[in-house]
């Protein structure tokens, strides 16, 4: 069975040489475990942080060991009650063809309800991140002007549309290409969008949100966060979700205008999706409903073949994906 291992810790952007495709024996499940054959796996920005040596909110990946992460697969052997051969489960043993999973950490999914990739995207961790970040962390209220960075990605595409569907006054998005900008406005119903390569982000945001910003959903950090500080209205709220503009730079860019938070009485709140599990049912009902009736649209960028997972991961970090970046096995 093939698996992808971390061969070296990337410096700056990862390269294909940082990964290694290895043939390993198919593992044997013990009591309470499942052997799963993976069908689709996720590549996510947070994995870049785990490739560094330092401890963060998740332990670093080990050198020479298979990577892991969200995946959906079919149970081949079950040694746990409640799961049978042929069941489809969501679990955390991605980056490999066959994985052993603790049944307590596996969640059954219904392939009849949504395509498998949706459980890793719009109806999974990224969708939940968008929902919790916007509604609970940033305390979005009807009538707010909302700015979402990384808006054409897995989290951003949901955050902007939840804001629209929950009655935002205006939803503004930023992304990295003209095609993504068109997609945001024409397909996802953003009121305005800009390509952040087109000038200073502060100027582009000020032009796209002339009445100022009440809520900022921050996927990017750096210059984007700085721009939001300048555009914020009094009592603005930011959900600090990620800072991908700094993930591959040894010398991070920080916001220079943090001082504005004082006079504007801003709330800037970091969060991790795992602390918002209590919203799961509401999220599944509301976002699942919007997906089913077509009012919330989503994209996926699918790369075929486990051997191409490093390429898909590196491409995602460079903005080659629209919507959720996935790898089918
Ligand atoms: P995406 O699908 O958005 O993919 C990453 C995107 O980041 C790329 O497509 C690219 O789009 C953009 N990007 C890359 N470099 C830069 C840059 N220098 N400046 C601006 N944009 C850049 O990933 P996700 O939706 O999965 O994740 C989005 C964010 O949410 C990340 O910061 C991630 O770490 C965070 N996150 C946080 C969670 C939490 O619990 N707090 C949970 C899940 C995700 P473009 O073409 O627009 O540049």
TrEMBL record:
It comes from Saccharothrix xinjiangensis. It comes from the Bacteria. InterPro entries: ADH-like_C (IPR013149), ADH_N_2 (IPR041694), ER (IPR020843), GroES-like_sf (IPR011032), MDR_fam (IPR045010), NAD(P)-bd_dom_sf (IPR036291). Residues 14-327 form the Enoyl reductase (ER) domain. The keyword Transmembrane helix does not apply. This is NADP-dependent oxidoreductase. The lineage of its organism: Bacteria, Bacillati, Actinomycetota, Actinomycetes, Pseudonocardiales. Keywords: Oxidoreductase.
């Amino acid at each position: 069975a093939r698996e992808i291992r971390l061969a070296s810790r990337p410096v700056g952007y990862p390269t294909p040489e940082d990964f290694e495709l290895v043939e390993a024996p198919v593992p044997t499940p013990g009591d309470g475990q499942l052997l799963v054959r993976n069908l689709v796996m996720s590549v996510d920005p947070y994995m870049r942080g785990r490739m560094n040596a330092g401890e963060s909110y998740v332990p670093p990946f080990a050198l020479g060991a298979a990577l892991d992460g969200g995946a959906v697969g079919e149970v081949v052997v079950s040694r746990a009650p409640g799961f049978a051969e042929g069941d489809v489960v969501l679990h955390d043993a991605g980056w490999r063809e066959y994985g052993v999973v603790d049944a307590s950490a596996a969640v059954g999914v219904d392939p009849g309800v949504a395509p498998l990739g949706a459980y890793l995207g719009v109806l999974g961790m990224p969708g939940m991140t968008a929902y919790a970040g916007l509604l609970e962390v940033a305390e979005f209220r009807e009538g707010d002007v909302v700015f979402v960075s990384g808006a054409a990605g897995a989290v951003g595409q949901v955050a902007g549309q939840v804001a629209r569907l929950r009655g935002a006054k205006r939803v503004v998005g930023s992304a990295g290409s003209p095609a993504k900008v068109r997609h945001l406005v024409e397909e996802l119903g953003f009121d305005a969008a800009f390509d952040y390569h087109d000038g200073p982000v502060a100027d582009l945001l000020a032009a796209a949100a002339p009445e100022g910003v009440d809520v900022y959903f921050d996927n990017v950090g750096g210059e984007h966060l700085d721009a939001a500080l300048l555009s914020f209205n009094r009592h603005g709220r930011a959900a600090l979700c990620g800072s991908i503009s700094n993930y591959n730079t040894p010398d991070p860019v920080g916001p220079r205008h943090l001082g504005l938070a004082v006079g504007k009485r801003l709330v800037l709140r970091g969060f991790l999706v795992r602390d918002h599990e209590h919203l799961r049912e509401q999220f599944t009902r509301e976002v699942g409903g919007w997906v089913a009736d077509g009012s919330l649209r989503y994209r996926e960028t699918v790369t075929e073949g486990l051997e191409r997972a490093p390429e898909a991961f590196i491409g995602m970090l460079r903005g080659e994906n629209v919507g959720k970046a996935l790898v089918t096995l």
